């Protein structure tokens, strides 16, 4: 096979992307559609789903709160029916969680962060892995962690805890599922340009009592390339991991971050 062909995901891949109606998830869904995949997304926001479907013809979608196991199971059943099976699971859903000193964090906000960022990954895996085993000969699971899954993140301990946990989950499952020819990797985005990052910067600036612009400059100083990454950078890595070129990559936590040096 031509080396260039190895970089292209196989046509007709059946892909499920959680939280796929906006941000990184939407960029990933669109990239797979451009690569001739069949794509199903879920999202908690019905309006965002309708917008995504109108923008991306051929997209399958369902509404779900990923912290609810029953809703996740319904989504996977629907995706299997609509797609005829599953080849790629992109466990993308996550929230920023609270910003603050650990003694000031509301336990309810801690629990909500764990439920959305970590429990949801387990809910999707528990239901989707049997489908991958049964219906795919090129199965790949891609979990969205964060640069906060390899570095400490002061004042963002709930978020960082979930992202470190995802890296551990991926490495464990790579060993567990390798004999079934299922690859499992995590992507660790860095500072991703966009509205969500602006909200994070604003919350952290408020917590530290400094301006938004000063806080943004502090983030950029921590990046070796002195720039943020884009959602398309993350989507490109996702496509690579699902392509034949990534067929021997598993158990990895891959940073796409311009080399964030510290948080």
UniProtKB/TrEMBL annotation:
<dbReference type="InterPro" id="IPR036291">
    <property type="entry name" value="NAD(P)-bd_dom_sf"/>
</dbReference>
<dbReference type="Pfam" id="PF13561">
    <property type="entry name" value="adh_short_C2"/>
</dbReference>
<protein>
    <submittedName>
        <fullName>3-ketoacyl-ACP reductase</fullName>
    </submittedName>
</protein>
<dbReference type="InterPro" id="IPR002347">
    <property type="entry name" value="SDR_fam"/>
</dbReference>
<comment type="similarity">
    <text>Belongs to the short-chain dehydrogenases/reductases (SDR) family.</text>
</comment>
<dbReference type="InterPro" id="IPR020904">
    <property type="entry name" value="Sc_DH/Rdtase_CS"/>
</dbReference>
<dbReference type="GO" id="GO:0016616">
    <property type="term" value="F:oxidoreductase activity, acting on the CH-OH group of donors, NAD or NADP as acceptor"/>
</dbReference>
<keyword id="KW-0560">Oxidoreductase</keyword>
């Amino acid at each position: 096979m031509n080396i260039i062909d190895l970089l292209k995901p196989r046509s007709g891949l059946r892909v499920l992307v959680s939280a796929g109606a906006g941000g990184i998830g939407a960029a990933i869904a669109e990239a797979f559609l451009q690569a001739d995949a069949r794509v199903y997304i879920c999202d908690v926001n019905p309006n965002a789903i309708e917008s995504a479907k109108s923008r991306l013809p051929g997209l399958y979608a369902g509404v779900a709160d990923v912290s609810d196991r029953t809703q996740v199971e319904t989504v996977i059943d629907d995706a299997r029916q609509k797609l005829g099976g599953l080849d790629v699971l992109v466990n993308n859903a996550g929230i920023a969680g609270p910003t603050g000193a650990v003694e000031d964090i509301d336990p309810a906000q801690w629990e909500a962060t764990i439920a959305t960022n970590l429990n949801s990954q387990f809910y999707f895996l528990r239901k989707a892995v049997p489908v991958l085993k049964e219906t795919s000969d090129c199965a790949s699971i891609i979990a969205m962690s964060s640069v906060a899954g390899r570095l400490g993140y002061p004042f963002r301990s709930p978020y960082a805890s979930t992202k470190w946990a995802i890296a551990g989950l991926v490495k464990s499952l790579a060993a567990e599922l390798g004999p079934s020819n299922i690859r499992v990797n995590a992507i660790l985005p860095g500072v991703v340009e966009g509205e969500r990052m602006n909200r994070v910067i604003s919350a952290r600036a408020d917590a530290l009592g400094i301006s938004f612009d000063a806080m943004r400059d502090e983030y950029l100083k921590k990046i070796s390339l002195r720039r943020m990454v884009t959602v398309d950078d993350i989507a490109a890595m996702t496509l690579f991991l699902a392509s034949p070129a990534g067929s021997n990559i598993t158990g990895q936590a891959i940073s796409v971050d311009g080399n964030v040096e510290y948080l």
